[in-house]
């Protein structure tokens, strides 16, 4: 009997220790899962141009969420999407700075990471801005710029065509031809001109390449001699402010380009939004088992 009782006691102790061990392993597993996300991407977030507002917001997110081990990689929109495609094709993990509208959300199954601290703000709008005095110099162009307004679906159509190999100006011309009614709303009341020169500035984002090419086509059809100038965000705003560029339909407000709008206040005209409901944030493929920026800690 004593042997039997001793055996039972040993068995109970063994079960108890096993249970404790399992519980500890569970906590350790949760920590290792979080660590594994970082390790799987080398604790890197793939960004874009260093001057872009989304890069500043991401640097703030790294600070606010306590992600001291993480590095924000500077590059370009093209480099970011190339890295995304490479990882996605192999179903490998990747974390990027993302925004909508963008063709990548059409091509790939992606999701935004939740931002409980609100670092990236709410929905944004894309604004049309012009240099001071443009309305006096080119009233017909300003009328078109002021009436220019389209949707994310419109823009995505152009972006996808370009991504699939259509030349930028050809994609824009095709969209303009197929959306004559909408274009007529933009040009209502605007008279044709004879070779008046106008310069449109834009950043090298797929979204702004699409919108600027479409607007350039519309203004060209009205008789304008249009020059498109690709710049980073800071020089773009500076160009509008000093008059070396006439207009841009690529101003993301109130978050992405907030610093530039404040820096050049009074030195540009804001014609209002040409698209509503855009968004910025951290983006991952949907196959990644992560849902919040908090999960990166």
Automatic annotation (TrEMBL):
Keywords: Cell membrane, Membrane, Signal, Transport
Annotated ranges, domain ABC-type glycine betaine transport system substrate-binding: 38-178, 196-297
Segments traversing the membrane: none
Main location: membrane
Protein's UniProt keywords contain Transport: yes
InterPro entries documented for this protein: ABC_Gly_betaine_transp_sub-bd
One Pfam family this sequence matches: OpuAC
Signal peptide: 1-24
GO molecular function: amine transmembrane transporter activity; carnitine transmembrane transporter activity
Any Gene Ontology CC annotation: ATP-binding cassette (ABC) transporter complex
Gene3D superfamilies the UniProt entry points to: Dipeptide-binding Protein, Domain 3, Glycine betaine-binding periplasmic protein, domain 2
Location within or outside the cell: Cell membrane
Domain of life: Bacteria
GO biological process, one term: choline transport
PANTHER family attached to this UniProt entry: GLYCINE BETAINE/PROLINE BETAINE TRANSPORT SYSTEM PERMEASE PROTEIN PROW, GLYCINE BETAINE_PROLINE BETAINE TRANSPORT SYSTEM PERMEASE PROTEIN PROW
The protein's name in its UniProt record: OpuAC
């Amino acid at each position: 009997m004593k042997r039997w009782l001793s055996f039972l006691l040993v068995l109970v102790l063994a079960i108890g220790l096993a249970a404790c061990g399992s519980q500890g392993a569970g906590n350790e597993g949760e920590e290792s899962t979080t660590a594994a996300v970082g390790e799987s991407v080398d604790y890197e977030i793939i960004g874009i141009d260093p001057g872009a507002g989304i890069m500043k917001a991401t640097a703030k997110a790294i600070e606010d969420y306590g992600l001291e081990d993480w590095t924000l990689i500077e590059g370009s929109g093209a480099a970011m999407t190339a890295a995304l495609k490479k990882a996605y094709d192999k179903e490998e993990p990747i974390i990027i700075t993302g925004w909508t509208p963008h063709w990548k959300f059409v091509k790939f199954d992606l999701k935004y990471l939740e931002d409980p601290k609100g670092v990236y703000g709410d929905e944004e709008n894309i604004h049309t801005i012009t240099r001071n005095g443009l309305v006096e110099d080119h009233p017909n162009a300003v009328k078109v710029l002021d009436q220019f307004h389209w949707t994310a679906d419109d823009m995505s159509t152009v972006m996808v065509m370009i991504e699939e190999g259509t030349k930028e100006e050809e994609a824009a011309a095709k969209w303009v031809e197929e959306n004559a009614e909408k274009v007529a709303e933009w040009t209502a009341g605007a008279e044709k001109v004879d070779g008046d020169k106008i310069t449109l500035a834009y950043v090298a984002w797929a979204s702004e390449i699409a919108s600027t090419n479409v607007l350039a086509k519309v203004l060209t059809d009205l008789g304008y001699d249009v020059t498109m100038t690709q710049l980073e965000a800071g020089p773009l705003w500076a160009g509008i402010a000093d008059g070396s560029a006439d207009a841009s339909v690529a101003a993301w407000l109130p978050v992405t380009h907030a610093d530039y709008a404040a820096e050049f206040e009074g030195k540009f005209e804001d014609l209002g939004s040409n698209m509503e409901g855009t968004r910025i944030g951290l983006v991952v493929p949907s196959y990644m088992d992560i849902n919040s920026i908090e999960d990166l800690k």
